[in-house]
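Same chain as my last thread, 194 residues:
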Amino acid sequence: MKIKNTWKNQGFTLIELLISIAIVITCATIVVAIITATFRDTNTVNSEEKIRQGGTSALNQLTDMIKNADSFEGAYKLQDGQLTSESCQTPDSDQSFGVDAIKITTNGQVRTIECSTSSDGTSESLTLDGQDLIDSNYIKIQECDISCTQTSVADPPVISISLSLSTFTPTGLAENTSDITQLSQTVRMSNPNQ
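reply #2:
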């Protein structure tokens, strides 16, 4: 007796097709989730690196300029929209004064380094002679502080600049945001001619 093979001519049932489609969709969803998570992590790392590079570059430029300055012209506070002279001389060298700006002379030119707040109080900037040192299109300065310590007029001042930075994302996408990055540099002027 010959057995007839009926399976060969029938094909797949509807249930088998639905199960196959469900397995393929599940696998595709897992793969897409893994790829998306990888891109988000990469964007976050890139954002943090851009913040760190931008802040470090600005601070290095300023500390080199301060360290090699010809003279220290003074520290200043912003009052009623004007910079007014402030002393950073302290009897106790552990104490420092927060100031809004310092002026130094380099290569015969007076340069102003300033931390300022926008008129609406929503953002801060770090400037050198009125020019932003941080790309405000991508990096937002949460906090900018300059402090000055000088034990006597004859001693060179010690200047500290601290920044709290985060990404500025007009789109608000979570993968483009980064936590606040803290950066600071302290420098003593080499040979300021008072």
